[in-house]
Amino acid sequence: MKPQTAIIALGLAAALGALAQQAQQAPTGYTDTPTLPGSNWRVHDEARPRPPVVTPGTCSTATVPGSPPSDAVVLFDGTSLAAWRAENGAPPKWKIQDGYLEVVAGSGDIVTRQDFGDSQLHVEFRTPSPPKGNSQERGNSGVFLFGIYEVQVLDSFNNPTYADGQASAIYGQSPPLVNASRPPGEWQSYDIVYSGPRFKEGKVAAPGYVTVFHNGVITQNHTQILGATKHRALPMLIEHGPRGPIKLQDHGNPIRFRNIWIRPLGSDNPA
Ligand code: MG
Q1: From the CA of 133, how far away is ligand 1's center (Å)?
Q2: 227 near 220, Cβ under 8 Å?
Q3: What is the Å distance from ligand 1's center to 180 Cα?
Q4: Are residues 123 and 236 in the same domain?
Q5: How far is the CA of 165 from the centre of ligand 1 (A)?
Q6: Residue 2 pLDDT > 90, yes or no?
Q7: Based on the domain organization, do 219 and 135 belong to the same domain?
Q8: Do 124 and 235 fall within a single domain?
């Protein structure tokens, strides 16, 4: 074969190869499909924006905290309370040691400096070992959404108490579906997805909802928020805006926390 012929043959082979590859490529979307009801997008719409890419975090182990997803707002990374304040605005007096945060009894609740709207919140906690006290006096703390709706933190391992007060209850409103508690001294996790109520003229225009996974087990399944958390009283209607802080409770017990992060969802959140 002459060199020129060889070059032509090679070029042809390359062009045919590229064509074959093109023919094998699956479509990345469609422009001729029906439009979804109530939507501007077609089924499998080629023009529909692809979701942003997030690098997932790593899971915690019994001894080592995991890492948050790449787009999370880190609220506690084991070293700093910069994201928090005491309720009176002063720096919080809770103790940081060996990568965890511990409630200092009598120093008061701590509150995030930033407000959040509807969000995904990850919190890890450990109740004291050996346990002390019983019922609500054993390993009590709490995660308050919007600063007023409590997802209860309690040592609920072999510790009878009222159902709507045990770990991962919406306190005073909704017991968890199951008791997924680990023993005292072991790290546990809450993954909470919530949306706040919307108000109009002093009334709830659209209710808020909370979903909780306790140690990976769903314990609140889109539970409706009835009102601000109360003790021995009905939940109370408190009108508030679309954002509020996260609050952690000082109930006088030395609960430890680690690896706390939040992923704001929707337009009511800070950019
Ligand atoms: Mg509590």
Answers
A1: 14
A2: no
A3: 17
A4: yes
A5: 8
A6: no
A7: yes
A8: yes
Query: In angstroms, rounded to a whole number, what is the distance separating the alpha carbons of residues 124 and 180?
Result: 14
Residue of 259, 260, 123 whose CA lies nearest to 191? 123
Q: Tell me whether the omega of the peptide bond preceding residue 130 falls within 30 degrees of 0, making it cis.
A: yes
Rounded distance from Cα 250 to ligand 1 centre (Å): 8
**Burial of 5 (C-beta count, 10 Å sphere; 0-12/13-18/19+):** exposed
**Residue position matching structure tokens 């979804």:** 36
Structural domain boundaries enclosing 192 = 73-264
Ligand 1 centroid vs 215 CA: distance in angstroms?
18
Task: Measure 267 CA to ligand 1 centroid, in angstroms.
Answer: 30
Measured distance CA(125)–CA(102) in Å, rounded: 9
Q: What is the pLDDT of residues 181-215, one digit of tens each?
A: 999 999 999 999 999 999 999 899 999 999 999 99
Structural domain includes residue 256: yes
Distance 200 CA to ligand 1 centre (A): 30
- Give the CATH number, domain containing residue 255: 2.60.120.560
Q: Could you tell me the distance, in angstroms and rounded to a whole number, from the CA of residue 248 to the centre of ligand 1? A: 9
Q: Measured in angstroms, how far is the CA atom of residue 45 from the centroid of ligand 1?
A: 47
For residues 160 and 44, state if they share a domain.
no
Tell me, yes or no, whether 202 lies in a domain. Answer: yes
pTM: 0.90
Ligand 1: distance of its center to the CA of 254 in Å? Answer: 12
| Alpha carbon of 175 to ligand 1 centroid (Å) | 13
pLDDT in tens, 9-64: 556 666 656 666 666 899 999 999 999 999 999 999 999 999 999 999 999 999 99
Examine residue 161 and state whether it is found in any structural domain, yes or no: yes
